[in-house]
Amino acid sequence: MLKPCTIVLGMAQNCDQAEGDLIGADRGALVCARQQRRMVMAIGDFDSVNAEEMTTIRQYADQVEVLPVMKDETDALSALHWAKEQGYQPIILTGGLGGRQDHQLANLLLVMYQEVPIILREKNNELSCLEPGRHVFKANAARFISFFAIEPAVITLEGFLYPLDHYFMDRGDTIGISNEIVDQEAVVTLDQGRILVVRCNDAKLNS
Predict the structure, then answer these.
(1) The whole model's pTM is what?
(2) Per-residue pLDDT of the chain (207 residues; tens, 9 = 90+)
């Protein structure tokens, strides 16, 4: 399919960051329904919504799958599995940051360790994973861009305020934090390993 979709999670305030088809995960489905946004799927245990809210969700969902409350995976992961089965790429998650730290960490792990491209997108932040190869980034409102090794990596940065030349970046290395794009385009070349990319457009968040 190679068509994008957005999984709207429970911490989302709206669907403004959505792209492609919408999938509502648990209370995220209510967020979509309240904005009168059509969903291809609403999935979750829905333990955080009442009967009236569930009726509203059903009005705006092509399909609804109610999961048991006691289960081995999060509602976000269940939604992700469904999206992968449909062939969506990339898969965007929104509403996955903030709130409980354990849920936030679980959503970050989805970005880092899935075999399909996952983007965790919020108002001020976007997180994604890069595989080996050449990757071009364009300057936009996201002033800060940071790189963290998911596994040991060899990385070259061109067109950045702080360039790197075949730098060996090990896990736990923070040299890649708070970089900036200084050309119209910047290039990340990854000779080996995998890295997490964090783009941020809020200057108040830098340290």
Answers:
(1) 0.86
(2) 579 999 999 889 888 878 999 999 999 999 999 999 999 999 999 998 999 999 999 999 999 999 998 888 889 999 999 999 999 999 999 988 876 788 888 888 888 888 888 999 988 889 999 999 999 998 887 789 999 999 999 999 999 999 999 999 999 999 999 999 999 899 999 999 999 999 998 655 444
Please write down the long-range contacts of 40-49, taking CB distance under 8 Å and 24 or more positions apart. 40/5, 40/86, 41/65, 41/79, 41/82, 43/67, 43/75, 43/78, 43/79, 43/82, 44/75, 44/78, 44/79, 45/69, 45/71, 45/75, 48/10
Per-residue burial over 68-97, b = 16 or more CB atoms within 10 Å of its CB, e = otherwise? eeeeeebbbbbbbebbbeeebbbbbbbbbb
Residue whose C-alpha is closest to residue 20's, from 91, 81, 87, 109: 91
Q: Are 143 and 204 in contact (CB under 8 A)?
A: no
